[in-house]
Amino acid sequence: MATEQRVAALQAKHAEVDKQILDIENGASTDPAEVSRLKALKLSIKDEIEKLRSGEQCSGKCKCGCE
């Protein structure tokens, strides 16, 4: 997958995870563990986007799903 396509896919995934976090936080019951997991995933995705933009390679050990 070309870098631009990968960045676009990651940006879409980042937005989706952000929406999931907001849905959980605005819901009747909040699962702190799930919110923490999603926030970690969101940060991992953001980190991969930045690496791709800077020309670095993702390690493959992250939680972003790049494998």
Characterize the structure shown.
- The protein has 67 residues and is mostly helical.
- It has one domain.
- It has helices at 3-26, 32-54.
- α1 packs antiparallel against α2 (32-54).
- 12% of the residues are buried.
Based on CA atoms alone, the radius of gyration comes out at 13 Å
> How many individual domains?
1
- The coarse overall form would be elongated
Helicity range: over 70%
Look at the helices and sheets and give the structural class: mainly alpha
Amount of beta strand: under 5%
Number of helices: 2
Report the mean per-residue pLDDT as an integer. 84
Which runs of at least 5 residues are low in confidence (pLDDT < 50)?
none
Q: Biggest sheet, in brief?
A: none
Counting DSSP E segments of at least 2 residues, the number of strands comes to 0
List the helices and strands in order.
HH
N/C terminus separation: 12 Å
Quickly describe the structure.
The chain contains 2 helices and no strands. It has 67 residues and is mainly alpha-helical.
SSE blueprint:
Blueprint: H1 3-26, H2 32-54
Helix pairs in contact: 1-2
Task: Write out key terms for the chains shown.
67 residues; mainly alpha; 2 helices
